[in-house]
Amino acid sequence: MNFRNTCRACSSLFRIRMAEGLQYRVSAISGTVVGVFWALLECVLFTVFYTYSENGSWNNNGLSLPQTISYVWLAQGLFVLQSMSIDSEIMGKINNGDVGIELCRPMNLYTHWFVKSSAGKLGTSWIRSLATVLAGLLMPVGYALGGPASLTALFCFILSVVMAFVLCSAFAMLVTAIRLNITWGDGPTYMLLLVSGILSGTYLPLRLWPDFMQTFLYLQPFGGFADIPVQLYIGSMAPTAALPGIGLQLIWSLLFIAAGRLIMKRKLNSIIVQGG
Amino acid sequence: MIAEGKIYFKYLRMHLLSGMEYKGWWLMLIQVLIVVVSDPIATVLLFSRFGNIGEWTVAHIILVYSLAVASFGLAESLCRGFDYFPWHLLRSGDFDRLLLRPRSLFVQVAASRFHLHRLVRPVTGICAAGWALGELGIPLTPGRLGILAMALAGGCLMYCGVFVLTSGLAFFTIKGLDWIYLLTNASYQITRCPEPYMPRALKSVFSFVLPMLFISFYPAATVCGWKYPQWLGFLSLPAGAVFLGLSLLVWRIGVRHYKSTGS
Predict the structure, then answer these.
(1) Of residues B31, B48, B175, nearest to A191 (C-beta)
(2) CB neighbours of B147 closer than 8 A, spacing ≥ 6?
(3) CA separation for the pair A11, A33 (Å, rounded)
(4) Do residues A117 and A125 touch, judged by C-beta distance below 8 A?
(5) What predicted TM-score, i.e. pTM, was given to this entire model?
(6) Which of A69, A221, B45, B227 is 20 to 30 Å from B241 by CA-CA measure?
């Protein structure tokens, strides 16, 4: 199968999954409700901490309250890119043995699933993201998402978000490749997804973590899921730092893709198809 | 009643054994432990960054929070089936099979799933509450223990109610239940905010719509003698029971309304 046919197959797979996702509009709405609620809760919490705590006014962490609140909203918007579990359709195939059928297709399994899972991720989530961010913009003063630090910052943010999508997809595929080994169950994969979620900054802005961890937090791959784009937007990371940041995302994406492909190839050599 | 109880535990045993067939089943224990430990980590880090809020220290927050988490975990362990119900029984049409069996529907659904690793959450929650009480210098008397046990039981009932409510509503919506997340995993996050600083709207939602504060904050306040009416701490059990009762009503209506889906 040549390159052009692969591209065509990928684009139709992508379209099918997108359309499928769009059918569940109620799901997107309820997702937005959760996101907005969650963000408001975080805003309340941060406001309490910044206003009433002992060291609240003494700002030694490089993030002001409005910046933190913007961070919360954007992180909620980007949160949908991260997978909390493996794409349910692929998971079903792994569990019931349909992997065998998938292997009969004249297309690389990794590419096939990569497109499928990333499209599934994007299917409804972009509406949810936009709605969450919009809700953030419309909130009353004090809880509202502020504007970007500058026009350059906005541009860097968008570029970095695109990269974050690739990075998240690549990571999800790496996890899927690991899950192919069915006899181990869900334990290892959930742990990987969990750790990635915590280190992505959606739990707590990475800047508010202890100071001695900052270098590690910057270099680890998961900051690229949300932290780097958001920091570019709110201006706690200068536009000059955008290039290294996006470069970091790119390097990790390539590493994840390479590792995912390798693991999948090795697993497929010795796969035992489960079920029938 | 006894027969139903027997079936319930038989189911649990079956799920336990089948879960242990996976080589990495013990990894799930670690996984939940990481979830449980990492959940409040944001709060702890915030306290280390910002210092105390008035008289509120980490121990105060952890006490209230752990009560909520432990009762959530208990309900999750005992009523797991309801949590999965909309996805695994309803949409696939497997629910039809349960309807054919001459046994209590509630027991069958509740026990349709059981994961040993879910028990990690209540266990760590209770340990954390113990640590917080030690940190606050509150000796455990039988009376206080009673209040805490009642808080846990009430919380467990309330969260069972949440799961049952989800399932009941799932009869009408089939998909698009993400918002239920607000009532489960998101709901106990509210206890991370010190109660006196909580906005009034949040406070009333989480005491009258979902009696969150009654099962976590008020018992803690009564046990530790914070400046709140003592009797509020005893309301956890009735509050949880009322919530469960209302949910069961919704579930009843749902079952009657049920038309098969799937194949």
Answers:
(1) B31
(2) B219, B222, B223, B233, B234
(3) 31
(4) no
(5) 0.81
(6) B227
User: First-to-last CA distance in chain B?
Assistant: 32
Residues of B in contact with A50 (CB under 8 A): 50
Distance CA A125, CA A118 (A): 11
Residue A61 backbone phi and psi in degrees, to 5: -115, 5
Among candidate residues A22, A11, A258, A262, the one with its CA nearest the CA of residue A112? A11
**First-to-last C-alpha distance (Å) of chain A:** 28
* A24 Cβ under 8 Å from any chain B Cβ: yes
DSSP string, chain A: --HHHHHHHHHHHHHHHHHHHHT-HHHHHHHHHHHHHHHHHHHHHHHHHHHHBTTSSS--SS--HHHHHHHHHHHHHHHTTS-SSS-HHHHHHHHHTTHHHHHHSSS-HHHHHHHHHHHHHHHHHHHHHHHHHHHHHHSPTTSSPPPPS-HHHHHHHHHHHHHHHHHHHHHHHHHHHHHTSGGGTTHHHHHHHHHHHHHTTSSS-GGGS-GGGHHHHHHSTTHHHHHHHHHHHHTSS-GGGHHHHHHHHHHHHHHHHHHHHHHHHHHHHT------
Q: Is B35 on the interface with A (CB under 8 A)?
A: yes
Q: Residue A28 has which token pair?
A: 């997107």
Note which residues in 192-211 of chain A have CB less than 8 A from chain B: 194-195, 198, 203-204, 208-210
pLDDT digits (tens, 9 = 90+) for B132-172: 888 888 888 888 888 888 889 999 999 888 888 888 887 77
Residue A6 in tokens: 């692969």
Q: Would you say A58 and A102 are in contact if contact means Cβ atoms under 8 Å apart? A: no
